[in-house]
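Hey, can you fold this one?
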Amino acid sequence: QQIARNKPIEQIERGHNLSSECLGAFVVRAWSESDDCMKTLRIYLDTSVVGTANANDALHVALATVARADMIVSWNFKHIVHFEKMRGFNAANLREGYGSLDIHAPPEVI
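Sure. Predicted structure:
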């Protein structure tokens, strides 16, 4: 099961050569920003995993973390699929009692 926000799905459909047939194979469940999600986001920002200018990117990770997703698949190599960022997100997740979250680029999982 895929957990996603609408904006990333729209980005994938528009610009990254994934057809709507491919996306149709997944069950998409949208998650709203809960208190736990916003707390997790704040931790990412307070520990400088990402800066406030990139809070929306960190929000995607927080949503997946709180939903206990197995992984995030993203084209965002600057703020999500980035070695130092992945370590920072997962360090915060483990400190807060969440499991680690695998973060991959689409070619790694398709």
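Confidence is low (pLDDT under 50) at residues 16-30. Let me know if you want another pass with a different chain boundary.
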